[in-house]
Design a protein that fits this description.
Largest sheet: 3 strands, antiparallel
Distance between the termini: 26 Å
Shape: globular
Strand order of the largest sheet: 1-2-3
Strand content: 15-25%
Order of helices and strands: HHEEEH
Number of strands: 3
Helix content: 25-40%
Length: 121
């Protein structure tokens, strides 16, 4: 997610490094595929990772300040629990990254009942 919003020189620096040995089976290991994924992430406004970390799937959305990225919000779930329909996790990640509420009635809009964080904080 973050690499999609970095200057080309920084992306080139990422590609100079080997893929970490701990990367999962879904990690992109080909430079052309990596560049294609960056374009897709910029176009869609979010990233989907299927087992970039073994056993885990993720949705990530950029936290932007104007045109500069300064973070990302991720929804991470065990691969066996991530739904095939990613509509809700994508909506949750992008809404949080854009600091906007989900439409009323969205499951992700309800606070976790065991959360120590107040919905108003």
């Amino acid at each position: 997610m973050i690499a999609a919003h970095l200057p080309p020189s920084m992306v080139a620096g990422i590609l100079e490094e080997p893929v970490p040995a701990s990367a999962g089976p879904g990690a992109i290991r080909d430079d052309a595929a990596f560049h294609a994924s960056l374009a897709q992430v910029r176009a869609e406004g979010y990233a989907v990772a299927r087992e970039e970390i073994a056993g885990w799937d993720a949705i990530a959305a950029p936290v932007m300040w104007g045109k500069a990225i300064y973070g990302a919000v991720s929804v991470l779930k065990p691969s066996s629990l991530m739904p095939q329909d990613l509509t809700l996790p994508i909506a949750a990640a992008t809404a949080a990254a854009e600091r906007r509420p989900l439409p009323d009635g969205g499951v992700a809009a309800r606070p976790c009942p065991n959360s120590a964080v107040s919905p108003k904080s």
